[in-house]
Automatic annotation (TrEMBL):
Coiled coil stretches, renumbered: none
Domain Aminoglycoside phosphotransferase: 42-261
Organism: Halorubellus litoreus
Gene3D superfamilies: 3.90.1200.10
Name this protein carries in UniProt: Phosphotransferase family protein
Length: 339
């Protein structure tokens, strides 16, 4: 595995590792021991020790994600390792960072290749075998005991014990959190006429349907950026079952919510812009105890779309034709739900 340069130089990595008890002497690290991996917004490095003084591990640095995002992922990893058999890497250390140092988390290394490369990798995002594995993973996200979570929404901290961790969400009721989440996004649409046009109707729909949303649904771990890219497998090929996965990774920004919202949010991410969503829906929901036309599908899908309404100018250059095409597609999605 040849070294690949990332945005962090070896001196920056040494400074970070001085605050994490994972290597004997960070100053002994050389650039050749660091391999940049992944294609996300944060720096992810595989750290090797050729002489064997420590085991290979993964260092994720919050280049873009904030401390609270990584902390939520750490809490979710603890819960999933405690209550499920998913191959979630163990957390070795977490550093919240400081004014002059980004947050970072060190985890055990999983020997596998992602089943997709970003949200532009449409063939792999929509491959039924990969989607079915995601559905099975989402089912496991819902396998945590009801008392393993308190509250809903963004995981702000963890409580309980090491053997019986408990996730703590930011709000007492799920309907309150979902209403706030969708409202926040629709109140700040990206600068495009189509998005600005549909935002008021979306806000009205969110308000009118709030009472349909349960206040205290059975909790599950919720990851709103989930895709086949979160799943690692030998050779990058989908195994027959989740037991064949090498890793389930990248849990930052984890939340607590009902599994139906997790699935609907995932369905949107995988089918946005797809002419025929049926194969994806079938593969995803065959692993779950409900179908894609469940009672709250419209409300949950609109909440899923809301993030694209506000965040599109972060993901795409507003001066690019791709931004215009995606904005119009997102607006049509909103109209199809609220009309």
């Amino acid at each position: 595995m040849p070294p690949v340069p990332g945005s962090l130089d070896v001196e920056a990595v040494r400074r970070i590792l001085h605050h994490m008890d994972v290597v004997p002497d960070p100053d002994e690290l050389s650039a050749g021991m660091l391999t940049a991996v992944g294609d996300g917004v944060n720096d992810v490095l595989v750290v090797d020790a050729p002489s064997g003084e420590f085991e290979r591990f993964v260092l994720k640095v919050g280049t873009f994600s904030r401390t609270e995002h990584l902390r939520a992922g750490v809490a979710a990893a603890h819960a999933l390792r405690a209550y499920t058999t998913l191959p979630v890497p163990a957390v070795l250390a977490f550093d919240p960072g400081s004014d002059d140092r980004p947050p970072a988390v060190a985890t055990t290394y999983c020997d596998g290749t992602p089943l997709a490369s970003g949200f532009d990798d449409v063939p792999n995002l929509t491959d039924p075998a990969r989607v079915s594995l995601l559905g099975a993973v989402v089912r496991e996200f819902a396998a945590i005991p009801p008392d393993a979570a308190t509250g809903y929404g963004n995981v702000v901290r963890e409580a309980g014990t090491e053997d019986r961790p408990r996730l703590v969400g930011e709000t007492e009721s799920f309907d309150e959190w979902l209403h706030s989440y969708a409202t926040k996004h629709f109140e700040s649409p990206a600068p495009h006429p189509a998005l600005e046009r549909v935002a008021p109707d979306a806000l009205a729909f969110v308000d009118a349907n709030r009472r349909r949303v349960p206040a205290e649904p059975t909790p599950s771990v919720l990851v709103t950026d989930l895709s086949p890219g979160n799943l690692l497998a030998p050779g990058g090929e989908p195994p027959a079952t989740v037991d064949g996965l090498a890793g389930v990774v990248d849990l930052e920004r984890a939340k607590v919510g009902p599994v139906a919202f997790t699935a609907t949010n995932l369905e949107y991410l995988l089918t946005a812009g797809v002419d025929d969503p049926t194969p994806v829906q079938r593969a995803l929901y065959e692993q779950l105890p409900f179908d894609h036309d469940h009672a709250l599908h419209d409300v949950y899908r609109l909440a899923a779309v809301s993030r694209a309404v506000s965040g599109l100018d972060t993901w795409e250059d507003p001066d690019n034709d791709r931004f215009d095409r995606r904005a119009r597609a997102v607006a049509r999605e909103v109209e199809a739900i609220v009309d």
